[in-house]
């Protein structure tokens, strides 16, 4: 065997020499020189059971509102509905709002699916959804009534026309249901729309 160091040993010696050269001016830290880094306290997260309790409380409050919701819908009211695209704006409401609904300028704060419900269930759920949306400071909702020649497709626009808090509605854009849904604009404290100049 030869007394010459291996390539690995040469590299280790060179690495140690380079390290010593790099830290030549450094001083060793004493116990008095140490600084303990203060880590910020993590954001307090509510316990999981508190989150579940809050969700249950919100769901219960929503169910109470749904049960107490009264609807001003008359089955005898037969509006003269337009042929083709379903749209409506209440008297005194800027017709530009229906154009904005058509273009999808408003995103729904709430989606209510009435498809497959009876008329009585649909009236109750629609009234509760309007009340829920307004209670939560919402002003736009998506009402899904389904496609075809079903009863709800014919009745829902008339019910919406009767509700005092409905400002306008328009057949929903494709991404929100197209012919099977309506985007509905509600009267709200947040809503103070003016026609653009």
UniProtKB/TrEMBL annotation:
The keyword Nuclease applies. InterPro entries: Smr_dom (IPR002625), Smr_dom_sf (IPR036063), SmrB-like (IPR022990). Keywords: Endonuclease, Hydrolase, Nuclease, RNA-binding, rRNA-binding. Pfam families: Smr (PF01713). One of its GO terms (molecular function) is rRNA binding. Residues 30-52 are annotated as: Disordered. Residues 112-187 form the Smr domain. Signal peptide: none annotated. The keyword Mitochondrion does not apply. This is DNA-nicking Smr family endonuclease. The lineage of its organism: Bacteria, Pseudomonadati, Pseudomonadota, Gammaproteobacteria, Alteromonadales.
